[in-house]
Amino acid sequence: MHGYSTDSGERRVVPLLLASVAIALAWVSSRILAVTHLFVPWWLDAPSSLVFYGALNALFDRYLWRNGLVSKLGLVRIPNLAGQWHGYLVSSFDGHEKRHHLVITIFQSWTHIAVFLTTATSMSRSCAAVIQVDDPEGVALIYQYQNQPLADAMKTMHMHHGTAMLRVSNGGCLVGDYYAGRDRRTFGRIYCRRQLRSPQADAESVYTARTKGAVSRLRITDIFDWTVKLAITARLQAHGEGLI
Questions:
Q1: Are 119 and 93 in contact (CB under 8 A)?
Q2: How many Å apart are CA 216 and CA 177, to the nearest integer?
Q3: Could you give all domains of the chain from N- to C-terminal order, each with its CATH number?
Q4: Which of 97, 123, 166, 219 could tie 174 with a disulfide, CB 3.0–4.6 Å?
Q5: How far apart, in whole angstroms, are the C-alpha atoms of residue 123 and residue 186?
């Protein structure tokens, strides 16, 4: 996953709250040690506040930010978009005449995100993203992606970059526009609805094909298997009714 930015001010407030809680926990732990007459080496006691902060920050980034109570208290405004979204897109490539089934899989923490979009002919991965929560038109996910055609795609298709802007509708759908850069110069509209709230695999273990600059054969196999599964799903549903 990669980092993403947001116009919400929570990332200035939450770290201060976590630091305050960490200091309080460190003080409580020191009192407990004093009462129980337990001796702790200086190298363990000195960084205790930092240890508590690191643990709290990691816990909040991965789990606590999703908690409904945290949202109700107003500490977090960033929406949880993680999950698998099914839908379709229409493209200027064929004059917007045909619905192309797609699957969007989003992995997200409080500070990191990865967006994967798979159709019957290609697969794209986000490389930069922004989540806007103060936009008058509603919450928006804006990301830049790199698209890689599958092996049996048309010869005219090749790797390219593009940008997508999706908005979260009141009905719980992601709806928006995309456009591809350079010589592709296609654009279109995306419609999808969330089917699974938790992806069934980890973003890095499934999609990362390189480790420290070397190609990992095991992970390439994972990518191939995952891509084939999504491509088969897309083709089976390509003649369906689309989004309800």
A1: no
A2: 34
A3: 6-72 (no CATH), 83-236 (2.40.128)
A4: 166
A5: 16
